[in-house]
C-alpha cells in the first residue's frame, strides 16, 4: 500500500487530488493545462530514440556508479563496520563519541557517495544528450559542426538575402 501511495502522489498533481482540475472552464488552471500537463507524444523513430537515450544514460550511470562509487567503498565498509575503537585518553567527550567514530565516518562516506550518485545522473544526461543531438543533426542532414568562421563570414550575405532582398533585387 505504501509503494502504491508513493507512486500515486509522485504522479498526481496536488491540484487534482480531490477534484478534476483539468476539465474546469476556469482560467485558474490554464498554466497547468498548457505547460505542465501538455506533453507531445512521440511516435516511431523519435520514440525509440528517446528510449535509447534514457537506456544509454542509465547504462552509463550504472557502469560509472559500480566501478567508481561502489567498488571504492567495498574495503572501507568491510573495515569500518567491524572496527572496534580503543578509546584511551579522550577527556572532552568521554568514550561515547569515540566508540562510534568508525560508524560516523562510514555514514559520512555513504552520504557523500549518495550525493555523488544523484549528482552524476544529470552529468550523464547532458553527455548522452549532446552525443544524441549531434547524431540526430547528422541524420537530418544538418551540419552543426560547421566552423564558426564560415558562419560569420557568410552572415551579412544571408541577412541581405533573407530579410532585405526582394525577388527583383540582385543578391551580391
Characteristics:
172 residues, mainly alpha, 2 domains, 0% strand, extended, FKS1-like_dom2
Description of the structure:
The chain is mainly alpha-helical and 172 residues long. The chain has 2 domains: 1-39, no CATH class; 44-146, no CATH class. The chain has 7 helices and no strands. It has helices at residues 2-11, 30-36, 45-82, 95-99, 101-140, 148-153, 155-164. Helix 3 (45-82) packs antiparallel against helix 5 (101-140). The protein is extended and about 90 Å long. It starts with a helix and ends in an 8-residue tail after the last helix. GO terms for molecular function: 1,3-beta-D-glucan synthase activity. The chain crosses the membrane at residues 48-69, 102-118, 124-148. This is 1,3-beta-glucan synthase. Pfam families: FKS1_dom2. It comes from Candidozyma auris (Yeast).
Strand content: under 5%
Helical proportion, percent range: 55-70%
Q: What is the chain-wise order of helices and strands?
A: HHHHHHH
- Indicate the radius of gyration in whole angstroms: 28 Å
Number of domains: 2
Through-space gap between termini: 72 Å
Oligomer: single chain
Low-confidence stretches: none
Shape call: extended
Question: What's the number of helices?
Answer: 7
Major sheet, described briefly? none
In round numbers, the mean pLDDT is: 79
Helical/strand content category: mainly alpha
* Secondary structure: number of strands: 0
Layout of strands and helices, then pairs:
Elements: H1 2-11, H2 30-36, H3 45-82, H4 95-99, H5 101-140, H6 148-153, H7 155-164
Helix pairs in contact: 3-5
Protein name: 1,3-beta-glucan synthase
Keywords: Membrane, Transmembrane, Transmembrane helix
GO molecular function: 1,3-beta-D-glucan synthase activity
Amino acid at each position: 500500500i505504501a509503494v502504491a501511495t508513493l507512486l500515486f502522489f509522485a504522479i498526481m498533481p496536488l491540484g487534482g487530488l480531490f477534484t478534476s482540475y483539468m476539465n474546469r472552464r476556469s482560467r485558474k488552471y490554464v498554466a497547468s493545462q498548457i505547460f505542465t500537463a501538455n506533453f507531445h507524444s512521440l511516435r516511431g523513430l523519435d520514440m525509440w530514440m528517446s528510449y535509447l537515450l534514457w537506456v544509454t544514460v542509465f547504462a552509463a550511470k550504472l557502469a560509472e556508479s559500480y566501478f567508481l562509487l561502489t567498488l571504492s567503498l567495498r574495503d572501507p565498509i568491510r573495515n569500518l563496520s567491524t572496527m572496534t575503537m580503543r578509546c584511551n585518553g579522550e577527556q572532552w567527550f568521554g568514550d561515547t563519541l569515540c566508540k562510534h567514530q568508525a560508524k560516523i565516518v562510514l555514514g559520512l562516506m555513504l552520504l557523500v557517495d549518495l550525493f555523488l550518485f544523484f549528482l552524476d545522473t544529470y552529468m550523464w544526461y547532458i553527455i548522452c544528450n549532446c552525443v544524441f543531438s549531434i547524431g540526430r543533426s547528422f541524420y537530418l542532414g544538418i551540419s552543426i559542426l560547421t566552423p564558426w568562421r564560415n558562419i560569420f563570414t557568410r552572415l551579412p550575405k544571408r541577412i541581405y538575402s533573407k530579410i532585405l532582398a526582394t525577388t527583383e533585387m540582385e543578391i551580391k
